[in-house]
Amino acid sequence: MIVKIILLCVCTITEFSTSNGTTYEAINKLKADLLDDYNPDTAPVKNSSTIIRVNIALTLFAVPDLDPVLGLIQATFSPMCFWTDEIMTWDPANYNNIQKVHFKEEEIWHPSLLLATPNKFTVAGGFRQRIKIQANGNAEWAPGEVWESSCRFNMKFWPFDKQTCEIEFINLDFTAEEVQLHHLLFNQDNFVPNSEWTLEGLSATTLTRLNFSVIRYSFKLKRESTFYVLTLILPITFLGISSVMVFLLPAESGERVGFSITLMLTMTTFLAIVSDIIPKTATPPSLMAVFVFLLVMFSIKVLILSILNLMLYHRSDDIKIHKNYITIFKLSSFAFCCKTKKIVLGQVMKFVGMGLK
C-alpha cells in the first residue's frame, strides 16, 4: 500500500513538471515564431490599404489638480487601446492551446498616442506596460499615467465657476488613412473625487486634423465654492458694511481716521489674495475682483469723508463753510452710503445664490 502511494506521488510530480516545462517551452516557441521577421515600426496589416481601427476605453482614476494661474489640468487615467494585429495570429492547437501571450511595448506595433494639448510633451507608454495579444490577433494595451494638459479657464464667475478642459491625443506616426482613433466607453468605477472640483460630465469626440486622427476628451468640472464663501466673500462683505459705521463713532474719540485706515488696509489685503488666485490675464475679468476693487474704493472714500468731517468739526465757528464742502457732503451723505451698500450686498447675495444652485 505504501509503495503504491509513493509511486502515485512520483507520477503526479513528474506529470506536473513535464506539463509546466512543455507549456513554458511552448510560450517561448510561440513568441519566437511570432516575432520572427516581425517589424514593430510597420503597420500590422496584410493589405496596406486596410485601416487600423484603434478603440480607446478611458478609465479615469482622479483629477488631482486644476491650476487656473498656470492654466493646466492634471488627470490620472488610462486610455486602454484595442486593435487587431493581423500579423500576430496563431493556431492554439499547435502551441498547447495557448490563447494569449504578452509582449513588451518595444517588441510589437502599438499606436503612438501623443498629447496634443500639452503642458509638457508626453507620449503614452514607457512605463513597462505589457501588450496582450490573443490568438485571433486582438491586442490590448493600457498605458496609464498622470497627464498634465493645458486648459483655458474662464474666471468671470469665480468662485462659482464651471470649467471645461479638453485633453487631446493624436497619432502622428500614421495618417488617418492608415490608423484611426475611436472612442469606445468611459470607466469611472475607481474614480476618486477631488475635494475642490466636482466632475459633472465626460465626453469624447473624434476628428481629423492635418490628415491625422485625433481624439478629444472634455472634462466638465464645477468648483466647490463653500470654502471661498466662508473665508473670503462673507468676511469682506461684512467689512465693507462695517466701513460706514465709522460715522457713528463720536468725533471726540479720535478713532474715526484710524478705524477707516484699518478697514481700507484690510480690503487691500483681500484684493491681493484674490489677485493671486485668479489668472492675471483672465478674460473676461472676474466679477469678484471687480467687487473687491469697488469695496476698496468705497473704503478710501469713507476715509476721505472722515478726514473732511473731522476737519470741519474742529474748525472755528467763525469761519464760514465753503459751498463746495456742502456739495460734497450732500453727494456723499450717510444715506447715499447705505444705499450703495445695499446694492453691493445685493450683488453678493446674487453670487451666493448662483453658487448654491
TrEMBL record:
> Pfam families annotated for this entry?
Neur_chan_LBD, Neur_chan_memb
CDD domains per the UniProt record, alphabetical: LGIC_ECD_cation, LGIC_TM_cation
- Neurotransmitter-gated ion-channel transmembrane domain span: 232-318
What cellular-component terms does GO give this entry?
Answer: membrane
InterPro entries cross-referenced by the UniProt entry: Neur_chan_lig-bd, Neur_chan_lig-bd_sf, Neur_channel, Neuro-gated_channel_TM_sf, Neuro_actylchol_rec, Neurotrans-gated_channel_TM
Q: What is the lineage of its organism?
A: Eukaryota, Metazoa, Spiralia, Lophotrochozoa, Mollusca
Q: State a single Gene Ontology molecular function.
A: extracellular ligand-gated monoatomic ion channel activity
In what residue span(s) does the Neurotransmitter-gated ion-channel ligand-binding domain sit?
A: 29-224
Task: Name the residues that span the membrane.
Answer: 227-250, 257-278, 290-313
What UniProt keywords are attached to this protein's entry?
A: Membrane, Signal, Transmembrane, Transmembrane helix
Which residue windows are coiled coil?
none
Source domain of life is: Eukaryota
What SUPFAM superfamilies does the record tag this protein with? Neurotransmitter-gated ion-channel transmembrane pore, Nicotinic receptor ligand binding domain-like
**Species of provenance:** Dreissena polymorpha
Question: What is the protein's membrane topology class?
Answer: Multi-pass membrane protein
- Localisation per UniProt entry: Membrane
Signal peptide span: 1-21
Spell out the protein name for this chain: Uncharacterized protein
